[in-house]
Amino acid sequence: MGTIKAHLGIVGELAFVAGGTQLATAGYEGARLWDVASLKQRSAFRCSAIKAFAFSPDGKRLAGLGLQTLYIWDVQTGRETLRRQVDQASRLVFSPDGLSLAVIASVVLPGGGDSPPLVKLCDATTGQETGQLARHPEGVARIAFSPDGKRLASASDDQSVKVWDPASGKEALTLRGHSAGVSSLAFSEDGNRLASASLDGTVRIWEAP
What we know:
Blueprint: E1 11-16, E2 22-27, E3 30-35, E4 40-45, E5 52-55, E6 61-65, E7 69-74, E8 80-85, E9 88-94, E10 100-106, E11 118-123, E12 129-133, E13 140-145, E14 152-156, E15 160-165, E16 170-176, E17 182-187, E18 193-198, E19 203-207
Antiparallel strand pairs: 1-2, 2-3, 3-4, 5-6, 6-7, 7-8, 9-10, 10-11, 11-12, 13-14, 14-15, 15-16, 17-18, 18-19
């Protein structure tokens, strides 16, 4: 279809808006938003190196994780609406209603080094932390909301998947069966099934609780 000369160097992250009409890309010098049909740049955002992107479900906002910074931009105007310092973080997802963000974060310990990653919930307007989910004993690779937003699943290097109630912050259950770290997960569109992929070479499909 075409080639976008997106950045001066390495393109480290990208994400399509729902429907695929726009594409966000990130390089060392900042982030950019492109119109896919014309391959023309719509906006350029000044920010630190982006590690993860997430579009809001309605496609009107773009969230990005930089170096200890959470950014949110208005897609239509290109205006930065939020810049907030956060702990070291690697992934983020919007809740289906667009009101919350779930973020995989690590906390720097007093004696140095990082704690095992945990999942934080933040207000998607202010960036203020609204809750924390208990840690996995090892790293968290992916997180995903169910389509109705009533469950949040986390995939971990500890070979498990945990399912949480984001409203209360409580763990609903732990799914075990993989023999190596769980690297990815996804809910089905109707929310009735949860698939998990592992470094053990298997994909497991669970009846979603």
